[in-house]
Design a protein that fits this description.
6-stranded mixed beta sheet; 10 strands; alpha/beta; 29% helix; ABC_transporter-like_CS; 7 helices; Rossmann fold
């Protein structure tokens, strides 16, 4: 399975976000998406998830060798930086509701209680309103339901910023398992996190998607090189992916 971006373009009035940007993301890998503030990481995720349309170019999902431009919205799982949850429901009610409407898409048969416990939400909190959860607990619930359905593409927009050390470790383990079923793209500002978690690093720079040689991710000078590329307008891309 592949997510294929072919020469996509996106402008906001006079600001260019993507200019003929192309890249191919494959199942079985976690991709770390890095870029400076305002480079368009969240915009890219919104275009892939069809919350926003590109001005031109195509975004394709390849399944079993067949390329689909009109893929289903349910093919894309999107974990937002700020949790999008129904504040009027309890955690248990929301997970149960999610199971009921996605029963055909959920492989593992577990109860809402079992799912919530699996991400470290204690039983005493299961019947609390989601609006009363901390930001980190809300993010756990959001991450949980996104991983439950094993969408072909999983987009994670800065998902670990609100977790404590233990919770972040638990979420990392879940994300690593998810790559067996999904194309996983993980946006972050933290280079060390990308190095620890990701199989490949992709830079969003000069309105292009630039792939970095995976063999160099753990080199001692990798961080310095990436910082130089993202901060110096005159530095040439290390490698641009051809579709």
């Amino acid at each position: 399975m592949k997510l294929i971006l072919e020469k996509i373009n996106k402008n906001f009035e006079k600001k260019v976000i993507f200019n003929e940007a192309s890249y191919t993301f494959e199942k079985g890998k976690i991709y770390g998406l890095l870029g400076r503030n305002g480079s368009g990481k969240t915009t890219l995720f919104n275009c892939i998830s069809r919350n926003m349309m590109v001005d031109s170019g195509t975004i394709l999902l390849e399944k079993s060798g067949e390329k689909e431009q009109d893929y289903e919205d349910t093919d894309i799982g999107f974990v937002y930086t700020a949790p999008h949850l129904p504040a009027f429901m309890t955690a248990y009610e929301f997970v149960k509701f999610f199971i009921d409407i996605n029963r055909k898409r959920i492989a593992n048969e577990k109860t809402p209680t079992e799912y919530l416990l699996s991400v470290g939400i204690e039983e005493e909190d299961h019947h609390r309103l989601l609006k009363d959860f901390s930001h980190g607990m809300q993010n756990k619930v959001q991450m949980l339901v996104s991983l439950m359905v094993e969408s072909p593409v999983l987009l994670l927009d800065e998902p670990l910023t609100s977790f404590d050390v233990v919770a972040a470790h638990e979420m990392k383990e879940m994300i690593i398992k998810a790559k067996n079923k999904s194309v996983v793209i993980f946006s972050t500002h933290i280079l060390q996190l990308a190095q620890d978690l990701c199989d490949e690093v992709v830079l969003l720079h000069h309105n292009k998607l630039i792939g970095v040689d995976p063999a160099r991710i753990h080199d001692k000078d990798f961080e310095e090189e990436v910082i130089q590329i993202l901060s110096d307008k005159d530095v040439e891309p290390v490698q641009e992916e051809e579709v």
